[in-house]
Amino acid sequence: MYGIVKTHKECGHVSLEEVPKPVIADVHDVLVEVHSAAICGSDLHAYEYIPSYQSFMKVPVVLGHECSGIVVGVGKDVTEFKIGDRVMGESNIYCGKCKNCREGNTHICEHNLMRGLTTDGVMREYVVFGEKNLHHVPSNLSFSEGAAAQAATVSVHGVLRRFNISVGSTVIVTGVGIIGLVAAQLARLCGAGNVTVVGTDADMATRMPIAESLGFHTLNCQKQSIGEYLQDSIGDKADYVIECSGAGSAIDAIPTYIRKGGEALLLGLPGREVSFKFADIIRSEINIRTAYTSTWKDYEETLHLLGSGAMSIAPMIKEYSLNKVEEAFEAGVSKTVLKPVFKFK
Ligand SMILES: [Zn+2]
Ligand SMILES: [Zn+2]
User: Fold this and answer.
1) Structural domain boundaries in the chain
2) Over 90: is that where the pLDDT of 7 sits?
3) Which of 12, 134, 227, 310 would staple 305 via disulfide (CB 3.0–4.6 Å)?
4) CB within 5 A of ion ligand 2: which residues?
5) CB 68 within 8 A of CB 75
6) Distance from the CA of 95 to the center of ligand 1, in angstroms?
7) 133 C-alpha vs ligand 1 centroid, how far in Å?
């Protein structure tokens, strides 16, 4: 069978390679025939082999942690899934034994294995999941939506578990990827009165039109600062920011436009070290929250919100066949496509 493999410790070098077919090894294992596998920001970082990934990622590695497909085999003690079920799997493999896991915080397991980075990922024809890490995909979602839903779970974890947006508030979302656009939709679902999605020149061609089609105010912060924009539009500062870009300049600017006592949720992972003006943060008593990946409950809620139509990721997806591997990664790197997804079937 085939998989999409990062073959060398250099930028690029991602190709379709012959890889061994996984087998059911545990009574709780489920064998999934992959139909769609999505490219995430971390896959792009792995593709580019950026410095902060070189210390921990294994090469060669099958890339990817976002997939969906059909159950084609089950271990003898599996009860929640049967052959033919439409499913999507979780991105991380947790130990279940450390203190965080025992407290239900499996997303910050001390011994987490990250599919597609520290262990072989899901961009391959078949993959095995433990039953406890698998979820049913609602029948009205495509396989590609089921795969990309993994990215949306990160926003659900951040906004619904780690943040507390009050009704009628003003929310700024920085970063126009899938995590930002889902976070913006969640802020609206929480009753925010005013949600603005903020991007840069690079987002204007394809990403901003999607933000606008979802009904959000948008701002190019290279044309006008967020503080000026807020002063012009509402005559006040923002109550909340959800930072999804990971850009140092975006993180650095937070104290300039959040009101005293406001809150910031940091979801975007910086690719390099960033500075933070802590004196301003402290004097304004701005609450900083962080969020990273997601738990079983976040996956279930994400799939429910997508299946019910309360939020949408379909406009963000572009599907690629397996003979366009490099083209799909380059489209992701250049930001010309928001969410490239490989069709395996
Ligand atoms: Zn653990
Ligand atoms: Zn992801």
Assistant:
1) 2-153+294-343, 163-290
2) yes
3) 310
4) 40, 151
5) no
6) 4
7) 14
Is 80 exceeded by the pLDDT of residue 271?
no
| Confidence at residue 52, expressed as pLDDT on a 0 to 100 scale | 84
The ligand minimizing its distance to the Cα of 332 is: 2
Q: What is the CATH number of domain 2-153+294-343?
A: 3.90.180.10
pLDDT at 82: 98
Interval 127-136: pLDDT, tens: 999 999 999 9
Percent of the residues in the chain that have a pLDDT greater than 90, as a whole number: 95
> Ligand 1 centre from 104 Cα, in Å?
9
What dotted CATH number matches 163-290? 3.40.50.720
Residue 272 has what pLDDT?
Answer: 77
Residue 36: what pLDDT? 98
Sign of torsion over alpha carbons 84, 89, 95, 98: negative
Q: Is 276 helix (H, G, I), strand (E, B) or coil?
A: coil
182-194 core/surface letters (b: 16 or more CB in 10 A; e: else): bbbbbbbebebeb
Interior angle at CA 326, CA 324 and CA 327, nearest 5:
60
Give 136 Cα–ligand 2 centroid separation in angstroms.
Answer: 18
Burial code of 104-125, b = ≥16 C-beta within 10 A, e = fewer? eebbbbeebebbbbeebbbbbb
pLDDT in tens, 118-155: 999 999 999 999 999 999 999 999 999 999 999 999 99
The candidate with the shortest Cα–Cα distance to 174, out of 257, 259, 234, 231, is: 257
Q: Which residues contact 214 (CB under 8 A, 6 or more apart)?
A: 181, 184, 185, 312, 315
Q: How far is the CA of 113 from the centre of ligand 1 (A)?
A: 10
If you measure from the C-alpha of residue 298 to the centroid of ligand 2, how many angstroms do you get, rounded to a whole number?
13
Instruction: Give the pair of three-digit tokens for residue 10.
Output: 């250099």
Q: Which ligand is nearest to the CA of 111?
A: 1
Q: Which ligand is nearest to the CA of 101?
A: 1
